[in-house]
Amino acid sequence: MRQISWLRKTNQFKYKLDRALGNRVLIFFGAYSYGLYLIHYGVDTAARAFVQPLIQPYLTGNRLRLLIAAGGLATSVGLAVLMHRLVEQPALRLKRHFKSPSAMPASPQRIA
Predict the structure, then answer these.
(1) Number of domains in the chain
(2) What is the pLDDT of residues 52-68, one digit of tens each?
(3) Residue among 106, 112, 35, 104 nearest 76 (CA)
């Protein structure tokens, strides 16, 4: 009886995990995560250096930080989507035309 209870709990956990990982938001950010990783620092730096001084006379404190963060996030996601479509996908399609190194014959070695 104990084994059946354990199996039921395992299946429930697997179902909940599959459901959580199948969330559309997580799938979206998973597809573009590498682009976000590469872009977010530059966008944040640019926003703080160029946009913040322009907005600072009108907003201060938490409102300014929230606007910079929201704008930076939106810009980062947009640029990551563009990077994925214009760089990553073509590169992944291009790799089909090349053989993998494991399929290449080994080069002869010198015997000294």
Answers:
(1) 1
(2) 889 888 888 889 899 99
(3) 35
